[in-house]
Task: inverse folding
């Protein structure tokens, strides 16, 4: 019940009292306490908002209840965003009630200190009376979180840490396990596989911490939960704490439900508001359900300081995403922190809104402590008929849990964030980003004694789901009457075989004939066709075969070959015995091909006669049959013919049947296969068949390639039984029929391609179900303004995402790469249909952010999918995917391949089918038209293009006639797509009138600088950087950008640098890109960002598009997984990191996955790389002073020559000749040569060669092919090198070792880079040669004609000129923003003797000799000016004039 002046008991979801068993429950984990003593549990409140505090607190309370410790509440203190007065937990929760105290003894901090700071207490402070008095004051009056405040809570926390035992729990890394065996005997005693498996599932990669003596023995167990780092418990109690006994686990879930709820005063106020809302709702005709909820709906709209920007959507998005869940005239209660109610005006246009303020006076909220107002809102929202929350909000999450406690249907819970709208409708075990939501395991079945590991509520139709009322579908537009389909259709004058043909139909209660790509009947010529390879037979001849051992699409490919062979030869096909088809995980419920195809129609039987194995044995296995068997064998084979298994160890092995057939004298094993030692192609040539004479003509050689041609001859036609041993590895028929079988007569060849199209399609029942889904999706799409094509396809786009047992790992790309690689293909807001074996729909968040996504499960009831066996669902999925406007599939997947073939049969443009893996993304547009091998990684257009004609089509004829809506990219765009990843979106800002003058203005500015004419406008301290109008004009016109894609000699440079997603590498990347703009560097420049979180990826991607890609379409960002974890020799993470692993592994990942190179896993070669392609690896903390090049013949270039005897150096990068900058580590890398293996070429490198050719660092420059060879080995070796010598230089040593291992000595240049001002082997002599009066200007305005400079400045050190210091370590991460001022720059007198020093932290002066002074002036001028120019460029393009801080006042030592 709820204590209140009105009856609001319907608001109580808890039991009080609990059941008898719970009332008597005693925890087996209770601590042992000496007489007269207590053991305590102390903790620090979380520093976040209230629901974060609550989550952390629930964990603590559960531990206290389980261990029997006395729970000490923290001192009263402010709670973030909750109140301006100090609060304690008993102000919010009824922890002092008799019922609660029975489960957990709770005392105040004051009571605890009064007891335990006395003599003999655990915290005895008799010798520190002042400290004791202060702590008692804080316990009584309250404390503050600020560390340096005199009333800081840390004063007490420090004592507890000092005297108590700090719990080692880190919720991001650990899980806390309560197991009785582990508690009594230690974790090693937990040997039950089931228990260990359940712990592993619960912890999900986290480290299990078992509650045992280590935590039970201390007198004070302290939780450091205010720690903003690793000890913070920002997680739900049921996803941190696990009791391996389900009865205990559920007890503590009930404990939280029944005791850790808000005080009655909250439920009383909330109940009054609910009653007012429901009274108004009833007047409008709405009803309250039996649990006292409903008659209004509720939202929680979080708008304040939530850090996840993607979920802070507009009011219009809120309404558009969830409007279908609301009912006409229904009240909508909105709980929100949005102060401006005008925000909700777009929603108020459609529905009547109510807010808490509407009821404040009516229920007396002004009398309620304002710290409780948020709790009232949560309870009111929890009682709505429908609730929609804000994803990532723990406030919304807790409302979801309250609704679970009340027993609300899962179908009534939604999120406004499109990718998560219906996430609560599907059962999910706690995992991933736990705090983003609540999980059903917190409330489902917790009154029982079993773990609940699946949903207890059936999934019903959601108003926000797919369109499913098939009865409301309008009749589709009539199909075209012509037989020429889509862009590949030929005119009737070119297709005499189609005379008399008609489009087929599907027997279905709904008109789904737009899915038909076959003709039925075929044309009269095809109906009358007689194969020239048929013999007159007085008795039947047969084909027997094994089904392929793979999944269905492998089986289908094999079956198509068998059927074409049978149709051509006139043989009767004997289907294999019924058996498990292994189409899905687990036992198969489909055991026959005839459940997919229609082999017994009259038209099919005219072409191929098909019988079962059982019929065959009955007919030919008895006396006088072709395979006469004795009685025993006959009985055995007849039984197996009914059902067998393709497992050699099985008692009903199918091989027994085939062995009996193959061993018979009337049987011949077909000498064909698609792999291993039998790699063949099958040729049907009339002359060869009739006369036995002929040879492999050029067309046959072209078709077969390296395969062995097998001709269909009289000899091959002789056997009564021709057996295809397609279960055997060498005889598998894992190839496309049109690539495996060749009819030398094109008319015959096309006939059999039509035969497969028109007859080897799935049956009507399968197409009917798929058609219903297609129609439903298209209905929804048309309502949204999308259109269908002439053939009734499109309206939506589709994907096939293969994720599970595909053996080609490189094609199994991440969710981000799926999106990044395909996002340019899609239309805004169009529906995506996703065919996939990925069980976690969160994988598709990127697709769901701006679009509606649909899956097969969304149409379960509408298409009556429960009436199908699970093996049929894949075919339905494929058909639905085949009708999308644009399709993206998984390379190497025969499932994706068949979808593309069906699209081809429909005549869909080649420009509408793509692959997600970048190296082959455009394979259907640019790839081979035909494959002269038995590969199956993709389908080839020769299987469907032009097959209705009488000529053999050998290339695409699709051209300008393709409708624009069907063409994603024009041919020329596809050819160049690798070099135009992002189009500048601010070209209008780059006024053409400015561009031709750019060089003149630059030169003019140069002259003004040198003449000092800008000094009048300069700040009092420092030389001015470029004039604003020059900086504002920087960038590239499209034509100019295109010209810079290659060097003047036609070389394509791919310049890459590796970063993580930390803020410092963010601004370093921007600065590097800007320095490239200044000197007009040629080539493509890519930031490789490794190990980013989802949030970081989104932010980095948005920043890049908004601020970097607009400068040049050649500037890119490429994301990779995290590689920085250090692993032991067994490959397990040690928990430590070496961030420089990201460089070799990140670059390798880029080279193997970027579409620029077309890396082929099988050959480990780059198949798409330009002949003149060079990769250059630099570091993010570099700026470019002169263009990077592959030609080092310039007289200013200086090669590394450490010995007296001069050596000849090559001057250009070419195959076998990489280049690099010298680094001063000598031959230290040679200490690790044993790691490269005993046969490594690195063993042959002596000390002199090591110093001359392998003492190298960035920039690394090599041809793309050479660089890949080095990088691949580099990634292999760097973990070993680091394990042997874990230090900063490990990755550089590993590079040198990799280059030596690959036999690729470098030409080493010493003039490419400067870094440390006293470094040896760098090009400081170029700086030393600059006159003193010009050295600062040379850094500000690099001009190679006046002063040759190094290529790069690696600003990894501190550089100072008088009172100005530059250090990347002191530069604020927000340097490129509107409000951050510019840096102070060195003054005009930077080279004066008075300024021959640099400052260190603390402003300590370090005197410099002339040489070091000059080098520091150059670098300080160069760095401060380029940072300022980049900052000014940012401000001019992205800030309003009034908000852009252009003052040069930022002192990095201030």
Result:
């Amino acid at each position: 019940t709820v204590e209140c002046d009105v009856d609001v008991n319907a608001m109580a979801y808890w039991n009080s009292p609990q059941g008898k068993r719970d009332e008597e429950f005693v925890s087996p984990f209770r601590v042992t306490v000496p007489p007269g003593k207590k053991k305590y549990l102390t903790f620090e409140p979380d520093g976040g908002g209230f629901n974060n505090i609550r989550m952390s607190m629930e964990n603590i309370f559960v531990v206290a209840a389980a261990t029997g410790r006395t729970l000490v509440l923290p001192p009263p203190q402010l709670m973030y965003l909750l109140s301006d007065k100090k609060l304690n937990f008993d102000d919010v929760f009824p922890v002092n009630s008799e019922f609660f105290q029975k489960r957990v003894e709770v005392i105040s901090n004051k009571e605890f200190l009064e007891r335990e700071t006395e003599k003999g207490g655990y915290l005895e402070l008799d010798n520190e009376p002042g400290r004791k008095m202060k702590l008692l004051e804080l316990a009584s009056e309250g404390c503050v979180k600020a560390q340096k405040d005199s009333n800081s809570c840390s004063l007490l926390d420090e004592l507890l840490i000092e005297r108590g035992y700090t719990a080692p729990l880190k919720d991001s890394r650990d899980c806390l396990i309560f197991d009785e065996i582990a508690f009594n005997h230690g974790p090693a005693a937990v040997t039950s596989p089931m228990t260990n498996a359940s712990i592993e599932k619960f912890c999900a990669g986290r480290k299990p911490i078992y509650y045992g003596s280590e935590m039970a023995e201390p007198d004070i167990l302290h939780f450091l939960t205010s720690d903003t780092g690793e000890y913070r418990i920002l997680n739900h109690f049921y996803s941190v704490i696990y009791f391996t006994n389900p009865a205990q686990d559920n007890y503590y879930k009930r404990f939280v439900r029944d005791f850790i709820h808000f005080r009655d005063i909250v439920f009383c106020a909330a109940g009054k508001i609910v009653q007012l809302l429901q009274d108004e709702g009833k007047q409008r005709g709405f009803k309250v359900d039996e649990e006292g909820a409903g008659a209004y709906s509720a939202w929680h709209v979080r708008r304040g300081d939530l850090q996840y920007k993607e979920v802070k959507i507009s009011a219009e998005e809120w309404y558009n995403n969830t409007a279908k869940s609301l009912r006409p005239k229904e009240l909508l209660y909105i709980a929100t922190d949005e102060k401006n109610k005008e925000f909700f005006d777009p929603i108020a246009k459609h529905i009547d809104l109510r807010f808490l303020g509407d009821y404040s006076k009516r229920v007396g909220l002004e009398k309620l402590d304002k710290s409780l107002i948020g709790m009232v809102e949560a309870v009111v929202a929890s009682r709505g008929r429908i609730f929609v929350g804000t994803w990532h909000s723990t406030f919304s999450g807790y409302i979801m849990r309250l609704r679970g406690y009340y027993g609300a249907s899962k179908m009534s819970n939604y999120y406004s964030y499109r990718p998560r709208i219906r996430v609560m409708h599907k059962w999910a075990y706690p995992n991933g980003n736990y705090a983003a939501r609540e999980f059903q395991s917190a409330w489902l079945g917790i009154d029982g004694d079993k773990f609940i590991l699946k949903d207890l509520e059936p999934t019903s139709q959601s108003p926000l789901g797919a369109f499913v009322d098939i009865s409301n579908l309008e009749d589709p537009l009539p199909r075209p009457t012509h037989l020429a389909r889509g862009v590949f259709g030929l005119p009737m004058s070119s297709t005499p075989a189609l005379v008399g043909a008609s489009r087929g139909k599907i027997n279905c209660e709904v008109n789904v004939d737009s899915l038909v790509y076959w003709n039925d009947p075929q044309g009269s010529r095809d109906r009358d066709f007689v194969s020239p390879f048929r013999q007159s037979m007085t008795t039947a001849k047969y084909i027997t075969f094994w089904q392929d051992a793979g999944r269905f699409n492998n089986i289908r490919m094999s079956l198509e070959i068998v059927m074409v062979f049978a149709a051509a030869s006139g043989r009767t096909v004997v289907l294999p015995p019924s058996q498990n088809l292994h189409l899905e995980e687990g036992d198969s419920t489909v055991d026959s091909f005839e459940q997919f195809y229609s082999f017994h129609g009259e038209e099919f039987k005219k072409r191929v006669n098909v019988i079962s194995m059982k019929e065959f044995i009955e007919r030919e296995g008895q006396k006088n049959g072709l395979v006469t068997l004795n009685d025993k064998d006959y009985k055995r084979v007849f039984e197996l013919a009914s059902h067998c298994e393709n497992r050699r160890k099985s008692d009903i092995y199918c091989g027994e049947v085939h062995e009996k057939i193959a061993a018979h004298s009337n049987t011949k094993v077909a000498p064909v296969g698609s792999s291993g030692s039998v790699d063949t192609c099958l040729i049907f040539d009339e002359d060869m068949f009739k006369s036995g004479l002929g040879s492999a003509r050029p067309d046959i050689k072209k078709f077969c390639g390296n395969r062995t041609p097998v001709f269909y001859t009289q000899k091959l036609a002789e056997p009564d039984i021709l057996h295809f041993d397609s279960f055997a590895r060498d005889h598998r028929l894992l190839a496309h029929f049109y690539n495996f079988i060749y009819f030398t007569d094109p008319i015959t060849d096309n006939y059999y391609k039509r035969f497969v199209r028109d007859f080897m399609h799935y049956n009507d029942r399968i197409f009917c179900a798929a058609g219903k889904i297609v129609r439903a999706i298209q209905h929804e799409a048309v309502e949204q303004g999308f259109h269908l094509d002439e053939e009734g396809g499109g309206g939506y786009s589709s994907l096939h995402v293969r994720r599970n047992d595909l053996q080609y790992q490189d094609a199994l790309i991440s969710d981000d790469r799926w999106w990044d690689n395909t996002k340019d293909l899609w239309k805004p807001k169009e529906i995506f249909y996703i065919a996939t074996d990925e069980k976690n729909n969160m994988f598709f968040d990127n697709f769901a952010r701006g679009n509606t996504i649909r899956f097969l499960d969304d149409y379960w009831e509408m298409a009556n999918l429960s009436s199908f066996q699970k093996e049929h669902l894949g075919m339905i999925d494929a058909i639905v995917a085949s009708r999308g406007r644009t399709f993206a599939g998984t390379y190497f997947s025969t499932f994706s391949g068949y979808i593309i073939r069906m699209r081809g049969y429909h005549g869909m443009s080649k420009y509408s089918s793509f692959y997600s893996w970048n190296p082959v993304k455009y394979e259907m547009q640019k790839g081979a038209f035909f494959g002269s091998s038995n590969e199956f990684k993709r389908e080839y257009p020769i299987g469907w293009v032009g097959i209705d004609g009488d000529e053999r089509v050998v290339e695409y004829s699709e051209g300008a006639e393709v409708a624009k809506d069907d063409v994603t990219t024009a041919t020329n765009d596809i050819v160049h797509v690798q070099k135009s990843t992002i189009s500048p979106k601010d070209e209008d800002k780059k006024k053409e009138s400015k561009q031709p003058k750019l060089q003149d203005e630059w030169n003019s500015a140069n002259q003004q600088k040198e003449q000092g004419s800008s000094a009048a406008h300069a700040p009092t301290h420092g030389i001015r950087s470029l004039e604003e109008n020059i900086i504002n004009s920087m960038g590239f016109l499209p034509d100019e950008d295109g010209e810079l894609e290659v060097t003047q000699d036609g070389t394509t440079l791919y310049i890459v640098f590796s970063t993580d997603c930390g803020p410092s590498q963010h601004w370093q990347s921007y600065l590097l890109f800007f320095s490239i703009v200044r000197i007009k560097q040629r080539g493509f420049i890519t930031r490789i960002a490794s190990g980013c979180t989802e949030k970081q990826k989104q932010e980095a991607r948005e920043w890049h598009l908004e601020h970097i890609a607009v400068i040049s379409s050649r500037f890119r960002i490429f994301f990779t997984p995290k590689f920085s974890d250090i692993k032991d020799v067994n490959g397990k993470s040690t928990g430590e990191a070496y961030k420089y692993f990201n460089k070799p592994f990140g670059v390798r990942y880029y080279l193997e996955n970027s579409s620029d190179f077309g890396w082929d896993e099988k050959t480990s070669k780059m198949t798409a790389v330009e002949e003149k392609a060079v990769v250059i690896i630099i570091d993010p903390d570099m700026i470019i002073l002169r263009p990077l090049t592959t030609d080092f013949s310039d007289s200013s270039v200086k090669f590394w020559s450490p010995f007296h005897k001069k050596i000849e150096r090559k001057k250009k990068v070419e195959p076998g000749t990489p280049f690099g900058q010298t680094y001063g580590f000598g031959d230290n890398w040679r200490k690790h040569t044993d790691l490269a293996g005993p046969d490594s070429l690195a063993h042959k490198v002596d000390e002199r060669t090591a110093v001359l050719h392998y003492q190298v660092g960035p920039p690394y420059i090599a041809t793309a092919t050479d660089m890949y060879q080095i990088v691949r080995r580099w990634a292999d070796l760097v973990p070993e090198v680091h394990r042997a010598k874990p230090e900063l230089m490990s990755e550089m040593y590993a590079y040198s070792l990799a280059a030596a291992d690959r036999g690729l000595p470098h030409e080493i240049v010493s003039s490419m880079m400067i870094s440390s001002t006293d470094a040896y082997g760098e090009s400081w002599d170029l700086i030393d040669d600059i006159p003193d009066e010009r050295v600062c200007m040379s850094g500000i305005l690099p001009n190679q004609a006046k002063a040759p400079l190094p290529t790069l400045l690696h600003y990894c050190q501190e550089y100072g000129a008088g009172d100005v210091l530059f250090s990347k370590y002191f530069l604020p991460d927000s340097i490129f923003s509107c409000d951050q001022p510019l840096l102070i720059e060195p003054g005009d007198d930077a080279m004066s003797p008075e300024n021959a020093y640099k400052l260190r932290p603390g402003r300590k002066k370090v005197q410099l000799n002339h040489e070091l002074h000059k080098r520091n002036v150059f670098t300080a001028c160069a760095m401060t000016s380029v940072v300022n120019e980049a900052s000014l460029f940012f401000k001019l393009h992205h800030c309003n004039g009034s908000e852009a801080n252009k003052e040069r006042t930022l002192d990095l030592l201030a």
In short: Residues 1410-1438 form the longest helix (29 residues). The chain is about 30% helix and 10% strand. Residues 1339 and 1422 are 4 Å apart (CA to CA).
